[in-house]
UniProtKB/TrEMBL annotation:
Name of the protein in its database record: Holin
Keywords: Membrane, Transmembrane, Transmembrane helix
Keyword Transmembrane helix on entry: yes
Sequence intervals crossing the membrane: 12-28, 48-65, 77-96, 102-119
Length: 129
């Protein structure tokens, strides 16, 4: 098990990051403040945090189960890119519209870029990190 984790440290870190982000979003029901109305209720709902946790757990399981299925790796990388990209974009919009400094959109954009680079490396290496 430890060897699998050592062989895929980026995947482990991204999985743990997604789980941590999901826990944060579940525990902060008023994190997003724009736009007012039903969409705000939608994005502040716990399902968003659970989605992040689910994607993170899928990546951890991929590593712990042997990290051999290339299609699973690519699918999870796409989901990771979509979730972090959406979060960074939504946080950027908060910063632009509301001027809030508490949204870490730059670091989440950097994580999204890292995921894209990892995906490119996975595609070039036939699925391996």
């Amino acid at each position: 098990m430890w060897q699998r984790i050592k062989d895929n440290p980026q995947h482990e870190v991204l999985g743990l990051l997604h789980i941590g982000t999901g826990i944060f979003l579940v525990n902060h029901d008023k994190y997003f403040r724009w736009p007012p109305g039903n969409f705000l209720l939608f994005v502040n709902d716990d399902w968003v945090g659970f989605w992040f946790m689910l994607v993170g757990m899928a990546f951890l399981l991929w590593v712990l189960l042997g990290a051999k299925d290339v299609r699973w790796n690519r699918a999870i990388l796409v989901l990771l890119t979509m979730t972090m990209g959406a979060l960074a974009t939504y946080q950027l919009i908060h910063w632009v519209v509301l001027g809030t400094d508490i949204m870490p959109w730059m670091s989440n954009a950097a994580v999204t870029a890292f995921i894209i680079l990892l995906a490119r490396g996975s595609a070039a290496n036939g699925g391996d990190h």
